Structure formats: C-alpha cells, structure tokens
TrEMBL record:
GO terms for biological process: N-acetylglucosamine metabolic process. The lineage of its organism: Eukaryota, Fungi, Dikarya, Ascomycota, Pezizomycotina. One of its GO terms (cellular component) is cytoplasm. InterPro entries: DUF3605. This is N-acetylglucosamine-induced protein 1. It comes from Ophiobolus disseminans.
Amino acid sequence: MSQNGDVPFWLVNVPRDQWPDECPEFLRECGEKDRRIIGTRDETYTLLTWDEVREFVRIDRVDKFHRKPSELRRYRQFTHHLVKEYGSIMAFMLSERLKWNSLEAKGSPFQHDCDIKILFNDWPYGIDPDIVHLVVWTKFELEDDPETGLSTPESREQIEEYVQRTFGEKCRDVVWFKNWQSLKSVKALEHFHVMLYRPDGEFVKEITGGDVAMTNKFVTG
C-alpha cells in the first residue's frame, strides 16, 4: 500500500482511467525507499530550495536528494526499458548519450576536453525549477578514499578547480558533488554533479552542446 493507505503505491499519481490491473513489471523489484516515494502524492511533495541544496552539499548529505514521486516512477520505467533494449544503462549511456567508442583517457584529469562531456541530468531531483542540474562525465577516474568512499583531498581540489574555471566565471551560484558509491546509478562511468542557480540559458546551451534531458524525451506507455 502507499503511505496514503488507500491505494497500492503503484497507483499513486496515475489517473484512475489509466490504472493497470496489477503492479507494472518495472516497479515489482522496488525497494522500500522507492515504494515510499512513489507512493507519495506529487501535490504533497516539497521541492528543495537553493539554500537547502547548498546545505545538503555542504554537509555531504547527498542521500537527501530524491526525485519527485511521479518522476521516480518514470525513471524506473525508463531504466527498465533501457536494460531490455540495450542490455544495461551503461551501454545506453555510452552509445546514445556520451557517444564514446572508448573509455581510454587521452591525458590526466581535466587535461583534455575530449575526455569530458557535460550533459543535463536525465532525471533531476525534486528541486526548485530555477536550479539547472548537470552531470560532468569523464573518461578518467577521480580518486576516492577506499575507507570513506569520499573524494580524496587531491581529487576534490581537481574538481573544484575545473568547476570554477568552467562554470564559476559565468554563474555566481554553483555547487558540485559526487554521489557516494552506493548511490550511483551508473557505477562504471566516472561522473560528478553540478547545480547552477538561475544560470544564463545560452551559457547552459553552449556548455551542454544543446543537450536535452531524457525526461523531456521519454514517453511512457
């Protein structure tokens, strides 16, 4: 059942005339956390403000970032579709989103632009719509501390320098973070997140090469 107690979680936020007879295949393996979120009505979900986003990043509580309930449902449907069509999310990312034939880096971290691609986060979190959520994908590894799972001081410095050089000069309000290993949806591809508050639209278009997030392309059926 959903947290509302009236209907199963898999019917929440779905128009009654579109209710399936049984739980869709893409939701059958949901963990308790996702069931709870998907079973929450969108109208009761509160989007995170920019101040809240900055604070979660500052205290490294990136586990507090969640997708809006209906978006999480669509995300699970999308990834289920990807695995069936491409074999894995990673295969889809390489062939369709990154268009990388090889993951071999040309040089050291952030030395060559060809080792980096900036795209929209395909399924952004439930945040203020004035916040633009990007993902920086890299062919090179960004070292983590094996004991804590967090970025090493050297790695953090490398990322910080890149973020300030790439985004800081054009956008005053910017934060970045790397997901904990346990939270990564694409574990085999190195990446980190960048969030910009009210950035110039032309700058975002330029930096992403005119990219469009998959959430704006995927049609549920």
